[in-house]
Amino acid sequence: MIKAKKSLGQNFLTDKNVINKIINLTPIENKIILEVGPGTGNLTSHIIKKKPKKFYVIEKDNNLASILNNKFKDQLIIINDDVLQVDETLLFKDPVTVFGNLPYNISTEILSKWIINLKNHFWFNSLILMFQKEVADRIVAEFNTSSYGRLSILSNWKLNIKKICDIKPEAFSPKPKIDSSLLFFSPKNNYVKIKNPKNLEKITRIFFNQRRKMIKKPFNQLFNGDQKILDKLKIALTLRPQNLNLETYYRLTCEYENLRS
After folding, report:
1. pLDDT tens digits for 130-147?
2. Annotation: CATH topology of 197-260
3. Which of 36, 70, 104, 224 has the most CB atoms less than 10 A away?
């Protein structure tokens, strides 16, 4: 039996009902597929049965990469590397479908990296990803709620996001101590054009640094109290960070970039 490594946030998905739900969310046959963190290959084997055109997996664990290689031979292209070090925009010429039971300890880092590194084209056509439930709740959170924050704003910038279901710890081995959630991401056709996504990160970091306080201080720090921007975006300085909707943060970032251009 393969022992999961806590240091790599490994929890192997074993529940066949959940696996079937995942592989039936989007067409696989004759598509280019990427699976992140395939672990022991439980989901991998079901994807192979659906006959993808090409199938890549990214697995950091040397031992698991070797097991996958022995198990699936030439049915997979195995990238034995840290997903945070892989540049998917260079790896794929055509959009791919991505499946991932992401390591919980770096799941937000992986998603943030993928969004920030998006250029003018999308290297994927859909992302089907597992997160711990608390993180998923933050990703899909609406403004004016306690879960809404930086991750919600960044995730929803260029992506449509749909929550598929919550998944109990019993679906994994070893059992995590928390529930998980499955999310489906697809590219937006229309989104606010921001020149440098790191500016969106900066704006949201400064605004949410003191999320329970009014936005007067962060706004003055970034915009020097510019009344024209307040009027244009219909913002009151008595609001709190979670009271500003997604669009307002994207437009604030554009205003910030305009001031510095």
Report:
1. 999 999 999 999 999 999
2. Helicase, Ruva Protein; domain 3 (1.10.8)
3. 36
